[in-house]
Structures are given as C-alpha cells and as structure tokens.
Design brief:
Blueprint (H helix, E strand, L loop, with lengths): L3 H39 L2 H16 L3 H19 L2 H16 E7 L12 E7 L6 H14 L4 E5 H4 L2 H9 L3 E3 L7 E2 L3 E5 L2 E5 L4 H4 L5 E6 L2 E12 L2 E4 L4 E6 L14 H21 L8 H25 L8 H13 L6 H7 L5 E6 L2 E5 L2 E3 L5 H12 L3 E4 L17 H12 L8 E10 L7 E7 L7 H9 L2 H21 L7 H14 L8 H18 L3 H20 L3 H4 L9 H31 L1 H18 L5 H28 L1 H40 L1 H25 L7 H27 L1
Parallel strand pairs: 1-17, 2-15, 2-16, 3-4, 3-15
Antiparallel strand pairs: 5-14, 6-7, 6-13, 7-10, 8-9, 8-14, 9-10, 11-12, 16-17
Helix pairs in contact: 2-3, 4-5, 9-10, 10-22, 10-23, 11-19, 13-14, 14-15, 14-16, 15-16, 17-18, 19-25, 21-24, 22-23, 23-24, 24-25
C-alpha cells in the first residue's frame, strides 16, 4: 500500500509525464514552424529571388501587370520583415531635415563619449523655437554621435491624435498630460479680492476644483490665473496667491509679417484666375496640342502659382522675392525703414542697452465674471514610465521651457526634469545604483524658418546629481524636496545657458553677430559651431563690460555699420576687399570684365534652374500659405518651419506623381519613367546650383556698389577698420571673450597677431601717402 505522500508524488509524476509529452509535441510543432521563419530571417534574399523569378515567369505567360504586382508584394513582405518601422521613419525625417538645412553643425560632441557605458541619459534642450523640427534635429545629431535613440516627452493631447500620435508611438514617445490641454469652463461666475474668491450663480467649487487646480479669468484683454490653495465650499475658496497676469515690456511694438499675408481664399482665387487666363491665352493664339494638353495645363498652373507667390510675398513682406532669397531682401527692406530719420533715435540708441522683461500685475474682480479652470493632473503614471525607461538605460529628450516661443532668451524652466531624475535615482538605490547623466543641448539657429539655412547643436557638460541631493529628496520634508528640485534646476539652467546663444532681443543678437564678423581676422573661416561659440562669448561677456562708455559707443557704431550693410546690400566679408579699389583704369577694366562674367554665369545657371523652380512653385506657395495660417492661429513664428516641412513632405511626392502622369500621357511611357526616376536627382542638383547662383547674385551688389560709388566702399571699409581696432582694444583690456573655449581662443589669438601686423603696415602706408 502506498503512503499518501507517495501516492501524491506518483500522481504528480504521471501528470508531469503527460505534460512532458504535450510540451514535446508543442516543441516539435514549433520547431517545424520555426524552419521557414529562420529561412526567411537568415536568407531573406530568397524572397527577392522568388519575386524576380515570378515576375519573369508570369510576364512570359502574357500577364506582365500581374507579375509586377506579385513581385511587388514579395518585396513589401521582405521590407516589412527586415526593416524597422522606427528606423525607416527616422531615416525619412533625417533625410528631410538634411534637405531643409544646408548645414547641421555639432559642438561639444566630445562630451558625449562617456555615454557609451550604457547609462541613462536625459537631453535637456533649449530654446524651443522650431516646434517639431527641434526634436528631429536633436534625434539626428544624437543618433549620429552616440548611436542612441531619443524618446521624447509628448503632450498627451498630441499623443492621442491619429497622425502625430502614430509618429509619437513609433518613435517611442512618452505621453505627458498637461493641465493646459484640459482647460474647462467653470460653472457660474466669480469675484476676487486678493486671494479670496467668491462664487456667484451656481458655482460648484467642491465638485470641479481641488487643491492644485488653476483658475483662469479673461477680462479687459488680459489673462489672469491663480492656483487653488484650499476649497472651503461651493461658493468660497482661497488661492495660494492673488490672481495675476504678466505684461511683456518691449522697446517698440513689432507686428509679424504673416499678419499682413493674403487670405487663403484670395490666394486660391488669384491662382485659378491666372491659370484659366493662361489656358485661354494659349488657346486663343491658335496653338494646337492634341496630346500635350495635360503638360500645357500643368505649366499654366505652375506659372500662375509662381506669379501668385511673388504677389503674396510682396503683400506679406513689402518686397517681391522668391522663397530662397526672401530673407535677404526683407532684411534690406527693414534696413531702409530703420535708416529713416527719427526724432527719438538718440533715445532708442540709449535704450539699446536697457533690459526688457515681464511685469506681473494683480487682478481684483468686483463684477461677477466667467472663468475657466485647469484640473489638477496626477503625473504619477507618467513618472513611473520615465523611471522604468531610465532604469533600462534609455535616453529621454525634453524641452523644459514647456512650449515653443519666438524670443531670443529662455523661458522659465519647468521642474519636470529634476523630478524625473531625483525620483528615478531615489527609486533605484542599491548595490548598483542607477547612473543618469543630464546633458544640456543648445539649439542655435541662424534663420530657423528659412529653407537651406544652418543650425548648430551644442552639447554642454554632463550634469551628475550628488547622493546628498538624492537623499534629501527621498527622506526629507516637503521643503527639502523643493530645495533639492531647486538646486537641480539651477544646475540645469547654468548648463543650458552655457551652450545657448541668448540675447535680450533680436536686434542685440544681430549686433553680437556683427561684432563676431568684425573680430574674426581676414582669411579665417570658422565652422558653424565655432561661430556660435564666438557669438555666445560676446553675449555672455556683455553683461560684464556693458557699463564701459566705450562699449556703448562700439554697440552704436556696430548698429550703424550693420544698417549701412543692409542698405547697400553688401556683406561684411565683401567690405574687407574694398580698400584701394578702382583707382586705375586697368582695375576698372578688370572689374567690368568680372561683372560681365558673373552676369553670364548667372544666366547660364538660371536657364536650367528656372524650370525646376517653376515645377516646385505650387509646393512653395502651399507651404507658405499654410505655415502663415498656422502662425496666425497661435501667433507664433515657431510653427512656420514645421509646417513648411510637413507640407513639402506631403505635396512634393504627390506633385511628383502628378507630373509623372502628365509626362506619361503627353510624351509617352519613356518620358514618364525618365521623369519619375531622374527628376529627384535633378532637383538635388538644382538646390546646390541655386545656392551658388544666390551667392553670385549677392556678390554683384558689392561689385556694382564700388563700380558706381567707390567712396561708399571706402567709407564702409574705414568704418569697419575703426570698429575692429576699438573691439580689439576692448578685448585686450577688458577680456570680453574670456569665456570662450581655449582652443578657439588660441586659434583666434594667433590669427589676430598676424592681422595686427597687417594693420601696422597698413597704417604706415596711409601715413606715407
């Protein structure tokens, strides 16, 4: 007789035998099914081989279209099995960014070498001036530098949208619920006196509000807000501080050009009118195109779009220009406007060095007023996702300013990044504590919304959080946690400022760039990153030397010099060649020959480029109109570049297919195939050729200036020379650029010594003359 325990074990053994047989059958079945899977993964070229073979066999049987469809299906299966959707999507957007920007320069990439040990990383990026383009630029730079994929914090409302949400999920974004996205109308009306708020007309404070909610009141053109500190009952609550609003103090009001743009309705009407008129004109002239009518109609539409684009730009910016050289002429138009005499010129120049900012004012409400509120959002789930991502050694990107803006300075940074880091470090303490590095990233654009502009991505020194701060955050009181957050954010702010080009306004930023051009010795060519670092050196050192009267005089002189450059349409590097020009007949003949050759070069480049500019005119017009519409909606320039890229990504392939169909129907299958496969290559050639043409065209301005009026050229040269001497003297005495990188400083000092010798010889020549 078996003991009970033995019986139990025996039954267990029988059951285990059955389970073993069942698992063996499943394993055999899985192995059988695994064979084709392994063949497909390891020998994927077999699928391509079968695709080619099936296409040929079915085509020989007399069904070429079916053969091509079957082979295309096999190719799609191969691509879906071997290519990551995330990598494919990243590659696509990286290629788009490479086309949009002429150069993406990287500074401080050597500071990222220690990230290869598998630690978690948070990239803190600022300023956020280019909406969706900013994260793509950072993703591309980080991927090429470190091989890491950056997961971005994405607004929950964007994460739930169909298109943007799809991209965010594929790119491993982390949703963040922002209270501002859930603004809700409150029941009833309120009055407020200081921190006390009283409800009227059926308010439901206890049901709608809680501690941490935000009340918003829009009255008399201002938007005031206050955080709820305590809810007493349905008609009474207390705020943590009185309702307040901010007023931005500016030297002068500036209205963006997109506010003057044509309406979409008028733009469409003009395009339709011009297209129909051109088609009617071609028909009235008696030309007969029996097979070419699709191409003729398309050319008429292209011409109409190009003319409408020029008219649109003239109404928007005050000058007619193409999409690629518009900013140059718009700067000239502004310079002419700025150079007009003004009775307050002295006051403006004196105010150039004064700080601008925001003034906070309180709002008391005596009359019952409607209100909205932002609910308190529990972010614990989001922080858990972030902590898990960091615990696995992931990489996160965040814009701590909380939103895009058009300013040249940083917005106040949110505490989210400090809470993420401190929370993760406190959560995963142990024998092998979690390693997290915070990397500041500065995004320094020269023209963020302009096609084929440049951008510099500058990485700062890694920020490591001390164990003392982590311990204070983990075991301390509420005040200790706030203090720990505050100390981390101070480190983050210092790090971001160290790699970001900041100025109090756009005019001052342009002056710093003008000083940088004047300071760099002739013949010295710096990278985009070095240009940003040198300009940043002037911006950082300005606060230390601005009280010197010589600095104020230098800034005024640089401002006048910049306005002259824009007024006469010449560049600073061209002014360096103006001295002693055109005094002999031989030099005059050489100049005439140079001008003639450059004009001929312009014409020879324009002939092949113009058809491509014409073919892209519809895309350019659509991108300009849609981006202006979006800018007017949010009253920000920061969305213009994003919508240009989105519209081009959507409409360039669509119009390419339409053009292919027109060529196929008008000129035959061979012409259609040639256009489909080789037109994109010609488009890339057109981009580089048009950039050369713009540079040649801009150089003609300087040549024509000194040909017509050599005195202006000499005046610009001597004014620049004087500014350079004053700047070098200030640098020698005040050490204005003491904060720039040592290697860059040594390079410039070596060049400056040779340049100073040149100036000495030059001065002696002038004295002898």
């Amino acid at each position: 007789m078996k003991s009970p325990s033995r019986a139990v074990h025996g039954n267990h053994d029988l059951d285990s035998d059955k389970d073993d047989k069942s698992s063996a059958r499943k394993l055999l079945k899985s192995k059988v099914l695994e064979v084709p899977h392994q063949v497909r993964k390891k020998y994927g070229f077999i699928i391509l081989w079968a695709a080619v073979g099936l296409d040929l066999v079915i085509s020989v049987l007399g069904y070429p279209v079916i053969g091509q469809a079957v082979s295309a299906l096999f190719v799609i299966v191969y691509l879906a099995d071997h290519i990551s959707i995330r990598r494919a999507l990243c590659s696509f957007w990286f290629a788009v960014i490479d086309v949009f920007f002429r150069e993406i320069s990287v500074g401080g990439d050597s500071k990222l070498l220690h990230l290869k040990d598998g630690r978690a990383v948070i990239f803190v990026c600022a300023p956020h001036v280019n909406q969706f383009i900013d994260p793509i630029v950072v993703m591309k730079t980080v991927a090429e530098t470190t091989g890491r994929h950056v997961s971005w914090m994405v607004a929950d409302i964007s994460y739930k949208r169909k298109v943007i949400g799809f991209f965010a999920k594929v790119l491993r974004g982390i949703p963040v619920a922002r209270p501002a996205d859930y603004e809700t109308a409150g029941a009833g009306f309120i009055t407020a006196e200081r921190s006390a708020v009283r409800g009227h007309g059926g308010t439901r404070f206890t049901q709608q509000l809680e501690k941490g909610s935000v009340i918003i009141v829009k009255k008399d053109g201002v938007k005031a807000s206050g955080k709820v500190g305590r809810v007493i009952d349905d008609e009474n609550l207390v705020l943590t501080a009185p309702l307040s609003y901010k007023i931005e103090v500016r030297k002068e009001a500036h209205e963006h050009s997109y506010m003057h743009a044509l309406s979409p309705q008028w733009t469409i009407a003009i395009v339709c009118f011009l297209t129909v008129s051109l088609i009617y004109l071609v028909s009235a002239m008696g030309y007969s195109f029996p097979n070419w009518w699709p191409a003729v109609w398309m050319v008429c539409l292209q011409i109409a779009c190009l003319v409408t684009h020029l008219l649109y730009a003239w109404i928007r910016d005050g000058v007619m220009h193409s999409a690629m050289v518009g900013e140059y002429f718009r700067d000239y138009h502004k310079a002419v406007h700025l150079s007009k005499p003004d009775d307050t010129k002295g006051e403006e120049q004196a105010g150039l060095l004064e700080k601008e900012g925001e003034v906070t004012r309180e709002l008391n409400i005596s009359d019952p007023t409607a209100f909205t509120f932002l609910p308190y959002v529990d972010q614990s789930e989001m922080f858990n996702q972030v902590h898990e991502h960091l615990q696995k050694g992931g990489t996160i990107g965040i814009f701590p300013e909380g939103g895009t803006h058009d300013g040249t300075n940083l917005l106040p940074l949110k505490w989210g990044v400090s809470t993420m880091v401190l929370g993760a470090l406190a959560k995963y303490e142990g024998k092998q504590p979690l390693k997290i590095s915070i990397i500041p990233v500065g995004l320094n654009y020269f023209a963020p919304h302009k096609f084929r502009s440049t951008v510099s991505v500058d990485f700062g020194d890694a920020i490591e959080i001390s164990e003392t701060l982590v311990e204070k955050y983990k075991n301390g009181s509420k005040e200790d946690k706030q203090e720990a957050n505050r100390e981390v954010m101070e480190l983050v702010m210092l790090g971001v400022r160290s790699c970001t080009l900041l100025a109090k306004d756009v005019e001052t930023l342009h002056l710093f760039r003008t000083l940088r051009r004047i300071y760099v010795p002739q013949g010295t060519r710096l990278s985009v990153a070095d240009n940003v670092a040198l300009t940043q050196g002037f911006a950082v050192g300005f606060d230390r030397v601005k009280n010197d009267p010589r600095v104020e005089a230098l800034m005024r002189g640089a401002s006048e010099y910049r306005k002259m450059l824009l007024e006469y349409r010449v560049r600073d590097h061209q002014v360096q060649r103006f001295q002693g020009r055109l005094f002999s007949p031989q030099q005059a003949r050489v100049l005439r020959w140079t001008i003639l050759m450059r004009v001929l070069t312009l014409v020879s480049l324009a002939l092949p480029i113009f058809p491509w500019i014409l073919s892209l005119a519809p895309c350019g017009l659509i991108g300009r109109v849609v981006s202006d519409i979006q800018a007017r909606k949010v009253k920000k320039m920061s969305v213009i570049g994003t919508w240009k890229v989105l519209m081009a990504s959507a409409f360039v392939p669509l119009i390419h297919v339409i053009y292919t169909a027109c060529c196929w129907s008008s000129f035959g299958r061979v012409a259609g195939l040639l256009w489909f496969f080789f037109a994109p290559l010609a488009f890339v050639f057109m981009i580089f050729a048009s950039e050369d043409e713009i540079r040649i065209f801009q150089s003609l301005n300087a040549l024509l200036l000194i040909f017509r009026n050599k005195d202006i050229g000499n005046e610009l040269y001597h004014r620049r020379t004087q500014l350079r001497k004053e700047l070098l003297a200030l640098q020698q005495e005040q050490r204005w650029l003491s904060g720039i990188d040592s290697s860059l400083k040594q390079t410039l000092e070596r060049r400056q010594s040779a340049s100073n010798d040149f100036f000495t010889i030059d001065d002696k020549k002038e004295e002898d003359a």
